[in-house]
Write a structure and sequence with these properties.
By secondary structure, the protein is an alpha/beta fold. The chain has two domains: 59 residues, DNA polymerase, domain 1, CATH 1.10.150; 274 residues, TIM Barrel, CATH 3.20.20. It has eleven helices and 14 strands. The longest helix has 15 residues. The structure holds iron/sulfur cluster.
Length: 342
Amino acid sequence: MEDIKDFGLEELKESLLNKGYPRFLARQVFSWIYGKRIEDFSLMTDISRKARKFLENNFYISGLKLLEKETSIDGTEKFLFRLRDNSTIETVLIPEGKRNTLCISTQVGCRFRCAFCVSGINGFKRNLKSSEITGQYLEVSRFKKTKPVTNIVFMGIGEPLDNFDNLVKSIGILTDPSGISLGKKRICVSTVGIIPELKELIALNLGVKLSVSLHSADAFKREKLMPIAKKYPLDELIKVVKDFCRKIKVPLTFEYILIGKVNSSRQDALKLAKLTKNINCKVNIIPYNPSSYFKWLKPSSEEIEGFSDVLRKYNLLFTLRKPKGWDINAACGQLRAKFGCK
Ligand code: SF4
């Protein structure tokens, strides 16, 4: 038996065709599961009885088990899901005005060990299957019938480009018109800068947005914060990013976690302004959310003000984000760690 949610639409068409069923059956199934949210083949009434029996005997429809849900005083909700192999993943829903953005995980654990991130502490366990990636959207949507998810960011646990095939398949499922039909511009893929896959993503031209974790415009400091930057250096990453802006013509976002006394000086801001000068981008400045796992400091209000001053002086488009869900361990990996999950 195979999980039907692990099939992209084209894969399912091929698989059904090979078993003697018409290709359009795949679109019917997609529309029931992802459009009408029916997860029982016997209820798919426009499908012939014979085909339904075949589906029941050859496929199953998986779901994620909700272990815990926490809600912050700012409205941020955090979901802890258990997978079939007992691994756990986190998904965070962030309300902001009319938007309801879902931050989705792509891996169990992470191999990249960024110096400020709880998800990297226990290392990497495995890639999520596409059913487990899209499953986060489907499960959270059940709770949010009145205020549906409007946007998706692939910014939860794991590095999306390190699970490239399942990421691309999931984007295909989330945007397919016969099902969830989410607008491509409502999806953002975040990366630490895995250059070969980033180039592949640009070549595929999926129409989704891109967000690059920068965290310092100084190559040496960045390598200290993000060890992967030693393999994929900042100057090469910037070349690829410029290529993305030329080809895709959608403004890019740089993420910058502002850590007290680390990357928060006026000099750091000046380097950031210079580095991003000719790039069609916006920078998200996120003041560090302290965690008991690290010694890093929250930036002082003077540091935040000084940093912002320099960016304003150089006309850099930036947003100073308030830390979200600080009272519910909303920084990625913190809820799993609290529950002792590996
Ligand atoms: S920030 Fe992202 S890439 Fe870095 S360790 Fe955390 S999950 Fe992995």
